Structure formats: C-alpha cells, structure tokens
Amino acid sequence: MRRKLNLLPLIIVAIIFFALNAYVLSGLGTLNQSSLLSPVFWVFIVGLTFALFFAIQQMRIQGVNRFFQIVSHAFLITFVAEIVFAFFLLLDDIYRLLIGLATNFEPGGFHISGRSSYWVDFAFVMFCLTIALFAYGITQGKYAYRVIKHTLYFDDLPAAFDGFTLTQISDVHAGSFTNPKAVQKGIDMINAQKSDLFVFTGDLVNNASSEIVPYIGHFSQIKAPFGQFSVLGNHDYGDYIKWPTEEDKIQNLKQLKAYHKELGFKLLLDEHVELHKNGEKIILAGIENWGIGFGERGDLNKALQNTDVNDFKILLSHDPSHWDAQVKNYPSKIQLSLAGHTHGMQFGIEAFGIKWSPVKYRYKHWAGIKTENGRYLNVNRGFGFLGFSGRIGIWPEITVIELKKK
Hints:
The chain contains nine helices and 14 strands. It has 406 residues and is of the alpha/beta class. It has two domains: 8-139, no CATH class; 144-405, Metallo-dependent phosphatases (Purple Acid Phosphatase, chain A, domain 2). The protein has a six-stranded mixed sheet, with helices on one face. Helix 1 packs across helix 4, helix 2 crosses helix 3 and helix 3 (66-103) packs antiparallel against helix 4.
C-alpha cells in the first residue's frame, strides 16, 4: 500500500516562506513607492522557487549540474539576505511597538509611528552586504587558502623528533573544483612549508574516483622527506550516489585506492608505519572512516596492533567524533590525532576572539586544536568545499604542526 503523503509540514513551510517575503516586501516598500515593486518582487521570488524545484528534480535524475548549482546558490543567497533584512526590520518594528505601548499611558492614547527610513536604509545596506559576502565566498573565498601553524609540546616525544614538522590537509573534494590554477596556488603553499611529513585526512572526492583525475598532476607534486600518507573519508566510499551495480561501487573504491598510490600517498587502512630518525621512532597510524552517523568502519585495535604502549603515536582518523568516542581514552596513549570532515561548515566567524560556526551544534570539536587527558586533537577546516560552492569566514586550511619536547 502506498504511503500517505503528509502535506502539513510543507504547508507550514510555505506559510512561513510567504510571510517572510511579504514582510521583506513591506520593508522594501518603505524605500520604493513604485507600483511595479510588488509584481516584480513576487515574479522573481516565485520564479526562483519554481526553478529550484525543477533543478532538484533534474538533479535527482542527472546528478548535480551547473543549472542546479546556479539556482540553488541564487536561492540560498536571496533567502539568507532576506532573513538579515527582516531581522533588522523587526528590531525597528519592536522598538516602535514598545514606544506605542508607552504612549498608551499618556494623553492621546496608543500610537505607533511610521518606520524610520534611516533604519530601513541600514537594513537594506545589511541586505546588500550579505549578498556581497556570499558573492565573495563563491568567487574568491573557497580558494583563499590559509596556513595555520601550531607548536605542540610533549613529555614523551623522542628527542630525535624534537622540532619535527608535519603538514596536514583534509577534505579535498576534487569533484567540486572548477579552477585548477587556484588549486595549484594551494599546492604551492603546501610545498612551501617544507615539512618533514605530509598527511591527508580523507575525502579526496565527493562520490566517484574519477573526480581526482584532472588534479592528479597537482597533488602528486606534494613531497615530504618522511613521505606522504593518507586515509579515507566518508565520501570516498561512494555511499551517497546510486551505482548501477554493487560491483561498480566496489570497483570505484578500488580505483580510488589506486589513485592514492598514483598521487604518491601511502594509504593507511587500519594499519601503521614506523618513522625512524637517528635511532628513534614514532608511530603513524591511519584507520578507515569511523564517524558517528557516517559509518564506523575503522578498527583502531587493528591499526595499532604490535605497537607498544610507550610508543609515541600519531593517528589519522577522518571524523573528529572518533576522538571522543574511542581515542582520547584509548588504553595505549595516542598523543596526537589528526581529523577533518567538518569543513567548519564553510561558514562562520573567527575574528576578534570569536570562534563560531553552525557546525558547533553538531560537533563538539570542529576546528583547530583540542587537548584533553594529555592528548591532542587537530581538526583541519578542509582544503576543498562541498554543497555550498564557497566559504565565508571559515577559509580553506593548510595546517602545519611542529612537535616539541618539553
């Protein structure tokens, strides 16, 4: 029997969407009294909404294409800018309402003054700034690579590795790239760090292994004296698209692993290697993706098999939720874990002592260094982008970590 469609949530969303746009239009009407404003506004909003529904239907059949990206981004920018405009408009309306209530106790009774044109002008400026900010994030921000450096101190670091450096990137998502020249700029910045070790913490592609092919020549340029190592992320397994057969999906993953080798990356699949220097060693381990809600494939016990409890260990694990669930209290101390996955949601603010992104409501540790129980976690903000084709406030990251002995 066919499942009955519940229209109530759709009706509620439609009412809220209509109310938001009507409220925005009322504010725009304060700035422009033209009789054409209302019909032009509604033709644009309704047309954009229907275009989005059509693009979504096409996307389900053909996958993400250029039309879907343009329409979805136009809708997102318009919607967010309207919310910003409505927020500042609402502040003025609440203020006028409170003043009106205060006059209720004075001669003349209750009265609400008209909207302040200056405040509506300010709201409109914020509306325009929001659009400009999104435009920057889409055209420039997604390739605005930043090098973020950390120096971490350890009591148990082998003396030979005092001053040892590693460069980490994560979440390349090669299928989202459209500007090879800009990507090359990021590769040059990676090599310019001249670190001892390079590590990549997963999500080389969005879905299909073929996405990395146009960029093999770029990422294969990355070299480090102690090698280049990598792990898989949740997107690398091809779980988010429909494959003709299960065998096609298996072959896709097999090919992706081969591309890691072609890039010069040693892929660590629930295993570890020993890095030796001047007669001393550290352990570099990597596991398959383990993330709450994103597949718990990795086997930490297997990855650290035949290591000693006193060994200095660095772990590559794509999803930072793994650190809280298993790593920070693992019986054999893992001094440093490196993750990615969150992208910092590609949107937020990290300035003036403020560090905020909506992703904080999903992930306890979503960017930067966290220390607990004598162990460190670094969450890289990602090299690429996915979904929203841009970055605002949370820029693509190249992490450089220096290990120091206390």
